[in-house]
Structure formats: C-alpha cells, structure tokens
Design brief:
Layout: H1 2-18, E1 26-33, E2 42-45, E3 49-50, H2 59-71, E4 77-79, H3 81-91, H4 98-108, E5 112-122, E6 128-137, H5 163-179, H6 191-198, H7 201-208, E7 246-253, H8 257-268, H9 285-302, E8 307-315
Parallel strand pairs: 2-4, 2-5, 3-5
Antiparallel strand pairs: 1-8, 5-6, 6-7
Helix pairs in contact: 2-9
C-alpha cells in the first residue's frame, strides 16, 4: 500500500513539473462529526421560539434548518418538523414545561426533543444570530451531559482538545462545584443560631464528606465524571430530573473572523454552482441561518466527544 502511494506521489510530482503544477490536486482535510450518544439517536425538533427583537423571525424556518443539519450527522434519525407540529396540535401540547416536552417525546416515540430559542437576529450585513438550544430526553433518568464528556482526558490525546472546548468544560465543572458552596439565604438563621452552628461546622463537614474525599462535600462534582464509566451488571437507579440532557448557547456574527473562516471551509467542500462564493452566504438569510445551525450542532457535539477523524479530500483541477 505504501509503495503504491509513493509511486502515485512520484507520478504527480513528475506531471506537476512538466505542466506547471496545473495537474496537482488540492489536498484538504474535511472535519467529520457523528452522534456520540446511541441512547439519543431518534430526535424531534419543535418550532423555535422567538425571544429576539426581530419580529420577522419564523420559528418553523429555524427548526427546519436545524433539522436538515442534524439529519446530515451520522447516527441521528430526525422526525420531520411537520410531523412534530401535527402531533402538538392533535394532543394540545404547549411546551410550557419540561413535563410537556417529555410528554411530546413519548407521543412521538423519540429519545429526545429539541427546544430552540432565537435570542438575537439581524438579516442585514453583518448578519447576526443568537441561538439557545436545549435537548430534553424522553427518559427523565437521563441527566445533563456536560461539555467535555467523552473527550480523551488523562491520555496523550488530551493535547489535541481545542482550547475553547477545554475552557467550556472547565467552566461547566466550576459552576457545578460552586453550587455546593453557594449559601442558601432563602431562610437565613438568626445571628445566635449562626454562631452556634459555626462551632460545629468542622465536625459536621468531616462526617458528611467522608464518603467522597477528605474536606469535600459528598455531592462535590468530580472531574472524573467527564470520563464515561464502565458498564454495570444492572441498570442504575432512576433519579428523575427535568433538566435538559444537553444545551448550548451561542451568538454568531457575519463579521467574526473565526466564523467567516469556518464558512469559507464549509463552502469549499460543497458543489455550489451559485455565484458569489462563501461571501454570498452572508447575504442570503436562508443560507446564513442554516450554516449557523450547523455550527451550533457541531460545537455542541464536538464538545461531548462527537468529533471524528478528518477526511482527506483530493480535489483535482478542471482541465480546459
């Protein structure tokens, strides 16, 4: 195999040297992504809500754009938005609570329902779009999957984790840890009760945290929670929750350098015969919205172990 590859490279170099390099292919690396959670494979998307100041936002349009991009990710089966709308009307489901969303999931026989909110939108250059998307699992026993889950922490591959993902994972962990240290002031004790409690705090803390780690509360989030646990002989007990199993909030801007670089790369791997190049995507609202949905999905899944190996693409020049 290596010998064939070496021969091919030699031929290409020879052809390039004799024809002004016009016959050499353009070699690029195309990012890949997949569904890292088999238990969340069948998904439904409800029409998005509009929380922006732009009255022309069509929640159905945004849901369809999200549907098309999610359906393109290997490992997902996505219910068409029209079927979701029909079931919501037939069952009079309003989606006012997590219980309503889980009820819709059961009616549609899906693993999760996606609830999206447009937080900011402007179609004029430079276009803007803010998205807050939450995935609610049909099974209330599925707890939130934090950013950083399933990534190669503690291995040589840890060096390859992008810095923004590391920051997001560390921030999510810090938030959960600080919840255990936030004082509850809903019903504060009287001054004399506080003084009496202070004298016994050390003893009480030592007795409570003995099950986790010395000096830490028993519900202190452990960084090892980012690493999936091994299989167990019996299913774990059900601790119901109404929290979304995944959520991601992001603002996109058409004049952001990272965004435009990603858009140019996306355009490069598409056979789009329309004129204008990737810049025209910033002028067409439909294309801009769909690409933002794509970015949103890829960021959310990549931060939870969904990024795959890049695909090497050889693009040959057209001989005229």
């Amino acid at each position: 195999m290596l010998a064939r590859f070496a021969l091919l490279v030699s031929v290409l170099v020879l052809l390039g040297s004799t024809s002004g390099c016009q016959l050499l292919p353009d070699i690029a690396h195309q990012p890949q992504i997949h569904n890292p959670f088999p238990q969340l494979s069948r998904v439904a998307i409800a029409p998005f809500f509009n929380a922006s100041t732009e009255p022309t936002v069509d929640g159905r349009q945004f849901a369809i754009a999200y549907y098309e991009e999610l359906q393109a990710v290997p490992g997902f089966e996505v219910v068409p938005v029209g079927i979701v709308e029909t079931q919501m009307q037939a069952r009079n489901i309003q989606l006012n609570s997590a219980a309503d969303v889980q009820r819709l999931a059961r009616e549609l026989e899906v693993d999760a329902v996606v609830i999206g909110v447009v937080t900011d939108y402007s179609p004029y250059y430079p276009p803007r779009l803010g998205l807050q998307v939450k995935w609610f699992a049909a099974n209330p026993g599925f707890h939130p999957i934090p950013p950083g889950y399933g990534l190669p922490w503690g291995t040589p591959g840890e060096e390859g984790i992008p810095a923004p993902v590391v920051f997001e994972a560390e921030m999510a962990l810090a938030k959960e840890q600080l919840k255990t240290q936030t004082p509850d002031c809903k019903d504060p004790p009287k001054p004399e009760e506080s003084a009496a409690k202070g004298s016994t705090d050390t003893t009480a803390a030592d007795s409570v945290t003995g099950a986790s780690a010395p000096g830490l509360p028993k519900d202190w989030p452990d960084p090892r929670g980012f690493i999936p646990p091994p299989p167990k002989p019996t299913p774990p007990p059900c601790w119901p929750t109404d929290a979304p199993v995944m959520q991601h909030t992001r603002n996109f801007a058409g004049n952001d350098m990272e965004f435009t670089e990603a858009l140019a790369s996306y355009y490069y791997f598409r056979d789009d015969a329309r004129f204008g190049g990737w810049q025209s995507y910033l002028e067409r609202s439909d294309d801009f919205i769909q690409f933002c949905c794509r970015m949103h999905i890829w960021e959310m899944l990549s931060a939870r172990g969904g990024a795959g190996e890049t695909r090497v693409v050889w693009r040959w020049p057209t001989i005229r």
